[in-house]
Each structure stands twice: as structure tokens, then as C-alpha cells.
Design a protein that fits this description.
By secondary structure, the chain is an alpha/beta fold. It contains 8 helices and 10 strands. It has a single domain, classed as Alpha-Beta Barrel (TIM Barrel). Bound molecules: zinc ion.
Length: 234
Amino acid sequence: MIPLTRRAFGIGAVSLAVGSPALVEPILRLPPSDKPTVALTLDACPGAFDERLARALADNAIPATIFVTTPWMRRNPTGLAFLLAHRDLFSLQNHGDRHLPPVLGSRTVYGLKPAGTLDAIRTEVALGSAAVAAASGEIPKWYRGAAALYSPEALAPIRQMGFGIAGFSLSADAGASLPAATVAARIAKARDGDVIIGHVNQPLRPSGAGIAAGVVTLKRQGMAFVRLPDQTAI
Ligand SMILES: [Zn+2]
């Protein structure tokens, strides 16, 4: 595997006019490798634990990068223990301390109150990182903001703190809002190098079953799965 580089990260970013000024949704893809490879990333926003999905990944030995929030870890000690019991498969990374979008100003983002200032964004990232480190014993290398949208001014400060910004290239579940069959069909279209985003905090919604079905099918077709922190050189 060729190391993931900033250049690989910088392939593109979609500018989204969510309020004003425009926010960015960074695109992240894996660099070329010698066999078809994708990265499955799952957000544990505040919420519950989709054990059905996590067990399916464990049963099929499919690695994933899990972006956890502090509130999720507090509310789901059993889920956290499950993830930590499968460290060979699941890597815990930073989804923020309070699930505040790393966005300047006061306009809500998908209903979420933003951090608001650069200082508050740094606090959100730093405390989220500390919580992951306390739980797992490992300092996370990647940060994904709540709602995966960023004020452009926030990107450099977050990188200066030592984190890669975990964009994605394939949204599997649109915030865990899609039916299982739709989610599975989206994942079936994954191409070599895709970074797939889904959610592992909505066990009562059908999306998680679609993620499980989709990635199991991909694996049977020969797709390899990697975790973001196993990519070097960020
Ligand atoms: Zn989230």
C-alpha cells in the first residue's frame, strides 16, 4: 500500500452552500494499490450502538475505522467494550467531544449547533482526541467533524494539531436515513480507493443492515478493506 499523502487527501473538496459562508466537504480517497481496496468508516455520533452491524463486521473479519464521540462512549460502555475487544479490526478515531460541527458562526448545520469559533473548534478536537486516547490507549490520527462539513478556515488549524481530516468519497447511508437495500446498492458501486462513510449509532434504523450486506458482498467479490490509521504519512 502506498502511503496516504496530503496530496491524496487533496484530490478535491465539494463546496456546499449550507448557509453562508460556504462550507466544505473534503473528499478523501485512498491512493492506488496493487489490488482493489476501500476503507469503511463509521461514525458513532451521539446515539446508541448498532451491534448488528458491528457483529457482522467482526464475523466477516472486515476492518473499519470508527469515529467516536465522547457522548457515545459514555452512553455505550458495552458497545465501546465490543469495539475494543476487536482492536485488530476496529480503530477508534476522533469524531469530536460534543459533536459540534467545526464551523464558524452560529448557523446550525443539519440541525447541529456549530462550535462557532476557532478556539471552540480546537477544544472540540482536542477533548475528543483525549477521550479516544483515554478509552483506547491510542492517540487518534484522524478527525472527522460532526456533519462532515467544515468552515474552510478550520482545516489548517485542525491539521496543525496533528490530525488528518477524514473526508470520504462514498456516502453509504446519508446519515443513516436510507433503506437497507438502497445502502447495500450504494456500497455495491464502490470503486477501488473509495472511502465509505456510514453510521454505527442507529440500531433502530434499517441502514446498518444495508451496510453489513453491502460490505460482506464486496469482500466476497475480492475487495480488500483497510483502516485509515494504518495508512502512513499524513
Ligand atoms: Zn456524527
